[in-house]
Amino acid sequence: MTNGLAPSHPEGAEPSSGSPRIRAAWRALVGHTAAAGVVVQDHRRERLMSWLFIAPALLFLLLTSVYPLLYSLRLSFFSWNMSVPNSQPVFVGLRNYTRLFSDPVFQSSLKTTLIFVTSAVTLEFLLGMALALLVTTRIRVVGLIRTLLLVPLMMTPVVAGVLWRTLYHSTYGAINYFIGLVGIPSQTWTGNPEQALAAVITVEIWQQMPVVIFILAAGIQSLPLDFYKAARVDGASAWQIFREITLPLLKPVILVVLLLRIMDAFRIFDVIYTLTFGGPGRVTEVLSILIYKNGLQFFQIGKASAMSWLFLLFIFVIAIFFIRELQGREQGGTA
Amino acid sequence: MAAVRTLVSQQRLGRLLLYLVTAAVLVAVAFPAYWLVTTAFKYEVDTIVSPPIILPLRGTLRNFTDVLRVEHIGQFFLNSALIALVSTGLGVLLGSMAAYSLSKVYMAYRIRQVIMIWILIVRIFPPITTAIPYFVIIRGLNLSDTHVALILTHTAFTLPFVIWLMLGFFQDLPDAIDKAAVMDGCSLWQRFCQITLPLALPGIAVTAIFTFIYSWNEFLYASMLTSRTAKTLPVVIAGYMSDKFLRWGEMSALAAMMVIPVMIFAGLTQRYLVRGLTFGAVKE
Known about the structure:
The complex is a heterodimer.
Chain A: H1 2-5, H2 20-30, H3 38-75, E1 78-79, E2 90-91, H4 95-101, H5 104-137, H6 142-154, H7 157-168, H8 174-181, H9 196-221, H10 225-233, H11 238-266, H12 270-275, H13 287-297, H14 301-334
Antiparallel strand pairs in A: 1-2
Chain B: H1 2-40, H2 44-47, H3 62-68, H4 73-103, H5 109-124, H6 128-140, H7 147-172, H8 175-183, H9 188-199, H10 201-217, H11 220-225, H12 233-243, H13 248-268, H14 273-277
């Protein structure tokens, strides 16, 4: 191939000057039979260099992620109220944890978080899947739809929170106006203990459903068309095609979407902070808000750290489940 | 024949229904943004009336001039931009170097795998779980209300993302050029700076935009680590909730000024959006 493609440029005639990029590109085109021996010689230095390349990032992550987490683990065994001047942490062993296990506030917050995550992600996923199928198969104005969907997704979460607070406003808000048009009486939404959590979930769905649509649509578009043609020739219905072809082929992408959305939904903070701040009462007090209130409002550093760690372990278990599932899939695919 | 005709008309009806449902969903998706923008241009009296004005017939720039008169607002804009820029630069530099190293085969497969999973796990943790230790540590270091505090915490959060995303972009590059440069005796550093980086420039740009948007939007760390000198825009917006909630026009004007640059940036990344959203796991 080398000789056939570059007969007018014998190996010796390559440019000896010029940037390494040009020289390298040249080598790539002309072939690299000449200098094969150099590789072995430099291998050791390359390995050392590659460690030097990754070292700053690893060091940075050690200092800014691993150390703070371990520090917080240590703090979780102490009782420390930072709002008291000159107060010192007092070692209490596992007391912060044992108290949390029987703390109704913590338990109800955990429950609220779970309800929030499962209902938001389920609805986002079902709606997102339906819209992704529509966008990829039936609709032409994809560019416009993409742009529209980008708007909530990229909106600053704090802005989304205050914006929806004005939309939900019982007197001046647009939502009560619209439901009034079809004869439904005004509601207080974020002020009503029975509606507040649903109101928060709605905002989450509004903002994050585009993620599901974008990713699933990309996944659907990358599926091999042959299967579909064959299925259609066999007279399969749209539902059969979806269940028998699209769904199984899309499973890895679905797993990625669910992992991302579940992890991100657990992370919710800004929107609830600005929309309800956990209220009314504690109806929308997810774990992030509870930890914030305990740690950064009441400065119960030990207790908040223990909560953080329970939260972490919880997330960790779910993440490991998904990562294993994804990895098993990958290895199964290549083997 | 008649049966075929009903089938066709049924299909048409179904299709029409689909379009209607999609249109309804899209209107619902777009309406809040429309509400934000129109509120920003409304007279203050027009923002607090019942029933609300959905289609405003008169408008004003008053809210925008009011925002610009908020004390230190210029500095808050600058803080947001500066922190996002520096944190992005730092994250992209450290992250692409690490990703480059991981994209090469010099490291044992097992070690690479462990590092990558570890990095992924760091990113999965909710920010609130590091909030308490950050708060205590930053206070202990006397870094409260400094730009450095936010730059470090934001970079800590975006670095794993940069590494994973850049790794995907680097793996897409043809290996032959890099191998040829090895033959030429280019060092790893030379190859990284003069071959890989220029070739992966679109990837770097996309990654940088994503990290910039994250930092620009970030609220939790900004609210707990800053009070005045390093205060950023999300904290200012959240402040409207407690101080002057009924100044919807002014609040919306500030929010619009904050969100619009992000939207423009986001538009630029459209081609790589799914990659960014999925950490590089799904490519479009």
